[in-house]
Amino acid sequence: MSRSLLSDERCDEIKKEVLFLYEECEIHTYPIDCFAIAQKLYYVLRPYSSLSPEEYIEALGIDQDGYSKVEFNPVTGMNQYVIYYNDSAIIGRMRWTILHEIGHIYLGHHDNPDDSLSAIEEAEAEFFAKYAIANPPLINISKCERPEDVEVTFETSRTASIFLFDYFQKWLRFGPREYLPFELEIIELFQAA
């Protein structure tokens, strides 16, 4: 989805949500561990390989990479968030997908009883994943000098590393001259480790 669907103000709100996520889940090292985040937030992860053949085909029909939804757990008698993901994808793509789905849940996209997600919600989840997996302050302090450095340091796919490094370069060129307060908090969180 296009970032242009989101205002600068909404992007800043999502960046702060990522900071809250890091703090809540005690994330202070990279590469960002999406599996640990899901576990700490009590989101259930279901790899496509664990599904029956019929469920697997249905999952691929919903999305080749993954999706999330609210499901009733008969054992607890409560609803739970479940993230289905294609575990045959390369690890970088799989991690991005899981963070994208965590973004949907964390940003409250499943709070609406209507199960369909809007284009804006998709853009928000995509921006959330991008910022969570390797945001410009972390790329900067990790001293990444090219997309390949991002790919290795943050365990992203090759395509994502190019996209993230381009975003980092724009942040350097057009962003504020000094770190914003929430960016400083992100840096302090990771440098303290």
Instruction: Please compute the radius of gyration using only Cα atoms.
Output: 17 Å
The level of helicity is: 55-70%
What's the total helix number?
9
Question: Helix and strand string, N-terminal first?
Answer: HHEHEEHHHHHH
| Strand count | 3
Strand content: 5-15%
Oligomer: single chain
Straight-line distance between termini? 34 Å
Strand order of the largest sheet: 1-3-2
Report the major sheet. Answer: 3 strands, mixed
Shape descriptor: globular
> Mean pLDDT across all residues, rounded?
94
List segments where confidence is low: pLDDT < 50 over at least 5 consecutive residues. none
Class of secondary structure makeup: mainly alpha
Short description:
The protein is mostly helical and 193 residues long.
Could you explain how this protein is built, in words?
- This protein is mainly alpha-helical and about 190 residues long.
- It is about 55% helix and about 10% strand.
- It has a three-stranded mixed β-sheet.
- The chain is globular, with a radius of gyration of 17 Å.
- The model has no long low-confidence stretch (mean pLDDT about 95).
Characteristics:
mainly alpha, 3 strands, 9 helices, 193 residues, 3-stranded mixed sheet, 55% helix
